[in-house]
Design a protein that fits this description.
Length: 462
């Protein structure tokens, strides 16, 4: 009863009060509230969702007896479960749906109620306040509004925070840059690669524009970019948050100067690690604790990270999580979007003379992402092959090519002799070398051959 009362009181708090409570709540109270919400979520899902009702029955799970995640045994939900039948998760009629691409290219559909959007906005606003934003700030929101959640969630959060804002969406960074002075924006939100492009414009213009805060999400920020961005924007703070369509609001925030990971919202989510290795890195798993439309219980994100032991030097309570080290599947979050093997397979199979072997690597040159498509062909017409690949990419995946046109990343295409890309029996299609230790990178990527090949840089005109 006491925990239920605390829940109801918390639901009526404004974002600034909620942020203050997070900073001061003792760990034992947060743990009690978290487990209370977990039990409520399990029972609600078992009573109202066809998916959970069926899964619990098959495993002999009595929701009334579940007190801790371990009581669910080996039960987890996965992206494949959502792709297969998202509406079977529903516990009540939804008000809105968002989509996110999966490793097969078939989109995941995640549903929310109107009240949940309002609640996520309140939580998002509290997170923004924890990271240094204030109601008096003026914010340019350049997160993407296209089918998935970051743009709208950030916008709802900004409205809840009471800050003046403009919902740009993922436009050309020059559109935001030329309006910074006009609207006196001092906070900018966007994907890291987009923020880097905006900063390049500011560095070239050298107009001395000062920002207070740059906030990124949806992908990792190159560590080398942060001090450079701070310098260009005259001391701006650069922060990151960790979220997804399935999470709704952010699971991780950076409210202090310890930017090696995230403070975890462990009152709205119950985080776990699935199959951690000897170093403590495992797949991030979470249970939503405040969602009644489409609750997710022990959802496997495919992201690999670890929990950071001990209290943060900043003194804030609660769990901390490292930055994402990689993924358990071949989906790569890069170049301003989710990229998966089938995307490139669809492009390459339409280009004559190419073999079935190909590989795409993702690297950093300084702070700029480079997407390198490597294919095989016996044809000497390498320029024709390059043009055909670009044409297919433009036709099939215009959003990817839009990011290229915006200067978000560089693309290179190299053509190699047949049989030169496959070092052994298995060829890994997507290789993310942006943050990998050098030994791992050398083992994963196929060696560049000395045969006849051509490498072409293709990027936006600056």
């Amino acid at each position: 009863m006491i925990l239920g009362l605390a829940d109801r009181i918390a639901a009526k708090m404004g974002p600034q009060t909620l942020a203050a409570v997070y900073q001061q709540s003792p760990g034992w109270l947060v743990e009690q509230i978290r487990m209370h919400r977990f039990r409520q979520t399990v029972r609600h899902a078992a009573a109202h969702s066809d998916f959970y009702r069926r899964q619990f029955k098959q495993r002999g799970i009595d929701a009334r007896q579940v007190r801790y995640p371990s009581d669910l045994g080996d039960f987890y939900t996965t992206p494949d479960d959502i792709v297969a039948n998202p509406e079977s998760f529903l516990c009540r009629p939804p008000a809105i749906v968002f989509e996110s691409s999966g490793t097969t290219g078939k989109n995941k559909q995640v549903y929310y109620g109107r009240d949940e959007l309002d609640e996520m906005g309140r939580v998002m606003a509290a997170g923004l306040f924890l990271m240094g934003m204030e109601p008096s700030d003026r914010v340019a929101n350049a997160f993407d509004f296209s089918m998935w959640i970051p743009g709208m969630l950030a916008h709802i959060g900004l409205l809840a925070a009471g800050s003046f804002c403009m919902a740009f969406g993922k436009v050309d960074p020059s559109e935001v840059y030329r309006r910074l002075k006009q609207y006196r924006f001092n906070v900018v939100l966007g994907e890291p690669t987009w923020l880097i492009r905006l900063t390049e414009l500011a560095e070239r213009d050298n107009a001395g524009i000062k920002l207070k805060l740059l906030l990124g999400g949806a992908e990792e920020m190159p560590a080398k970019a942060i001090p450079w961005m701070q310098s260009v924007w005259q001391g701006a703070t650069v922060k990151m948050c960790y979220g997804s369509v399935e999470l709704g609001s952010a699971l991780g925030y950076q409210p202090c100067s310890q930017n090696d990971g995230y403070h975890v919202d462990d009152t709205d989510f119950l985080p776990e690690l699935y199959q951690p290795d000897a170093d403590g890195h495992g797949e991030v798993v979470f249970t939503t604790l405040r969602r009644t439309t489409m609750p997710l219980i022990r959802y496997r994100t495919r992201d690999v990270a670890t929990f950071i032991p001990g209290q943060c030097p900043c003194g804030l309570p609660g769990m901390r999580m490292s930055k994402i080290r990689g993924r358990r599947d071949e989906l790569v979050v890069a170049s301003g979007g989710n990229l998966y093997p089938l995307m490139f397979e669809n492009i390459i199979k339409q280009v004559p003379t190419l073999t079935h072997d190909w590989q795409v690597t993702f690297t950093l040159e300084g702070i700029r992402e480079v997407l390198h498509i490597r294919v095989e062909s016996a044809s000497p017409n390498h320029d024709t092959i390059r043009q055909a690949i670009l044409a297919q990419a433009q036709e099939q995946y215009p959003d990817l090519m839009k990011n290229l046109a915006l200067g978000i990343f560089q693309m290179r295409i190299s053509v190699h002799p047949p049989g030169s890309l496959r070092p052994g029996r298995k060829l890994k299609r997507l290789v993310d070398l942006r943050y990998a230790p050098q030994p791992d990178a050398a083992e994963t990527a196929s060696p560049v051959t000395n045969g006849s090949h051509v490498e072409v840089a293709h990027e936006a005109t600056r």
